[in-house]
Write a structure and sequence with these properties.
The chain has 225 residues and is mainly alpha-helical. It is 78% helix and 0% strand. The longest helix is centred in the last third of the chain and has 40 residues.
Length: 225
């Protein structure tokens, strides 16, 4: 599943990826419906299933490029430079926005509708999931076999929903008493995302850009994995 040096790079990327106030707002919304636990769990499952589908597609692509995985090419570092520029651009753009849109509360939907909501939230966000693409770039650079790369992607996708599942578990144990703390948590994540999200994207973008440029200048990555 990759060595510690690879996960030392992937872990902060995952932390940035987890700053998803839209998903948290959707989970909080579901926890306020009549079938709170079922609906919130369905949203998380829908989101996770979509991530797994994307991960499977990526793993199949990685498997077909096994030799390239074992021998990273200059193209991989050119992609990393492009991702670094995109990360910097998104980071700067986020510093000028007022925050993510709120999820409106309404009549309680069915768990199937919530499952679809989770999938849609993920599908809409995939084109803008720059940290996730950054993680893929790091995996492409690593000296991994196709099964190892698949395992790393799988673990990444399994780790992603855990904090949101913990929110649902807390609500299940505390009942309606957790509603107010959950609303405060959502507000906190919104505020933290508005500050930490752009900052970490800027740091990651600078690191990716420096790594790719260093490779073309010196013939080796600045941050080998």
């Amino acid at each position: 599943m990759g060595d510690l040096s690879l996960w030392a790079v992937l872990a902060p990327i995952l932390l940035v990826d987890l700053l998803n106030p839209v998903l948290l707002a959707a989970v909080t919304y579901a926890l306020g419906t009549q079938r709170a636990i079922a609906n919130a769990s369905a949203i998380i499952l829908g989101h996770t299933a979509t991530y797994f589908a994307v991960g499977i597609g990526l793993a199949l692509g990685i498997e077909s490029l096994q030799q390239r995985l074992q021998n990273p090419e200059p193209t991989d570092f050119a992609i990393e430079i492009a991702l670094g520029v995109i990360l910097l651009g998104v980071g700067f753009a986020m510093t000028r926005t007022s925050g993510p849109p709120a999820v409106e509360r309404g009549a309680g939907p069915s768990p199937w509708a919530c499952f679809g909501m989770g999938a849609v939230i993920n599908l809409i966000g995939i084109p803008f999931a720059v940290p996730y693409f950054g993680a893929i770039g790091q995996i492409l650079k690593a000296d991994l076999s196709a099964p190892e790369a698949f395992a790393v992607l799988g673990v990444y996708n399994l780790l992603y929903p855990l904090p949101f599942a913990a929110v649902v578990a807390a609500r299940a144990m505390a009942g309606e008493r957790a509603d107010e703390p959950l609303r405060k948590l959502t507000d906190l994540v919104n505020r933290a995302g508005a500050i930490l999200g752009p900052g970490m994207l800027l740091l990651l973008g600078a690191a990716f850009l420096a790594d790719g440029v260093w490779y073309f200048l010196r013939g080796q990555p600045l941050f080998p994995v």
